[in-house]
Write a sequence for this structure.
């Protein structure tokens, strides 16, 4: 095993305290039609001797966020909210919006585009772009 470096104190002294072998990630939701096999990753835990932090070894998996279907009540609420934003003048002169997504499904981008405000701007400033309106549902 390569020399591990603690994520907290940068210590290099420690030992493996758990090894569960290869395991599927907890955030993997394959489609019913997916024949498999599921992807697997090494699941090990290392304990830093310097600071005592127990931490997983290896590269973390990238979370696959499951998206739900937006309930009708939220669709109606979004329509009303965008209508109120427009009638109160909050959309006047704004041409770009950055939207923070929701695992509950749906988006306000279509409703805003109907009122002349375009999406496509990343919500995280470090990823580039700028927006005149930020939408966090």
């Amino acid at each position: 095993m390569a020399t591990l470096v603690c994520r907290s104190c940068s210590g290099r002294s420690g030992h493996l305290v758990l090894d569960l072998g290869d395991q599927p990630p907890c955030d993997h939701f394959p489609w019913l039609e997916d024949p498999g096999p599921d992807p697997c990753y090494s699941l090990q835990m290392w304990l830093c001797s310097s600071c005592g932090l127990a931490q997983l070894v290896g590269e973390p998996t990238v979370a696959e966020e499951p998206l739900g279907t937006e309930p009708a009540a939220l669709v109606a609420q979004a329509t009303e909210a965008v209508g109120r934003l427009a009638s109160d003048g909050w959309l006047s002169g704004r041409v770009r919006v950055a939207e923070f997504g929701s695992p509950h499904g749906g988006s306000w981008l279509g409703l805003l585009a109907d009122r002349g405000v375009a999406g496509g701007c990343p919500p995280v400033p470090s990823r580039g772009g700028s927006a005149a309106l930020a939408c966090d549902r």
